[in-house]
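pinned: reference chain
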Amino acid sequence: MNKTKFVSAILMVLMLVAMPAVMAQDFLTIDVVRINGDRAEDGDVLYVERGDDMRVRVTVEAGSDDVRNAQIQGQISGYRYAQYERDMVTDYSRTFNLPAGQKRSFDLDLKVPTYMDMKDVKLRIIVSDENSPDLVTYTYQLSVHGIAEDRALDITDFHISPSTTIEAGRAISTTLRVKNLGDHRLDDVTARVSIPELGISAFETIDDIRADESVSFEALVMRIPPNAAAGEYNVVAEIDFDRFHRVRETKRLIISAPDEPEEPEVRTEITVPDSIQLEPGRSSIYPILIENKGTKAQNYVLSASGVREWGRSNFDPASVVVIRGGESQTVYLHLTPDADAEAGDHVFRVKVETAEETREFSAVANIKEDRVDRVDLRTVLEWALVILVIVLIILGLVLVFTRLRKGGKGDSDEETQTYY
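pinned: its structure tokens
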């Protein structure tokens, strides 16, 4: 009796374990999976390379009941940029119905990302419908390897500066960034950029690029010939590696005719004071600031009028100066009133001439009153004070010497006197 109970318990356990499989079979089963034409069993380990296309054909078979609104999903897991390239690592069949006991095949298109890390990841085939609580899943181990050596080098960036539109006669700089997507080191890597239609090129060479390493080529400069015709040209970037292999990329460059040289701009600004304070017989400086804000050098001729009536004038460094475009210079007009010049305001004029224009400015020279008498009286008083000091010093010396002489005689008498 106890033996019978034990056998019944074992059978019940086996039924419970087998029940999910039966339920899954009643819903739908995966009959066969072919990847790129080869049959793949659940749990297989598959060798793939970066950039491989994967055509997955899934054949399913309905169970004892009709299947309604089912869908098949294929997904490569473990790609860090899956959210940006989900169309590459995920694909879905359209929603389908399948009568009980019948089979149907669906194709999924997946791709191993070119920049996926070289590691082991999962490929999952998942089948589900609208009502069944179960999922039918096949899982494969993908062993991701580098690209074969003849295709391992990839141009990840090809940049032309300052722009893809340039004037004839100017230079362009090109930057190439490449990555070794293979499993092995690549030797003798040479980057070359050229514009074949113009016969110009530049190149740079490095010894090797390690597996999964990125390298930039930046010293690639070409000058567009000044006589290059306006139009579109191909800029060709070629990377030679491992002696026999090459990768190539092309960009378009628009060359425009150089702009016609503009007529030099002529513009001058002159700044002068409105007035100047002068003293008879003494020279003072009247500054004239000339700013050449044009684009070509200018000759400036300066002259002064209205000065001869009360004094004389001259220019420093000269009355003719040359100032280049965008530069400035200050010319100094030295004004010296005559010693007997009349005090008060005197108007004089400064003229600045160029080949294109003449500019004239009026200013007031304010000549102060003659202070010669005051200066002479002050000089007399200063000399009188000096003479008085000298006289006092001499009198002091005379008194000192007189006292010394008297003192000397008294001592001598005392020393020679004899007492009896």
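why pinned: The chain has three domains: 2-145, 150-256, 268-367. Residues 289 and 330 are 4 Å apart (CA to CA).
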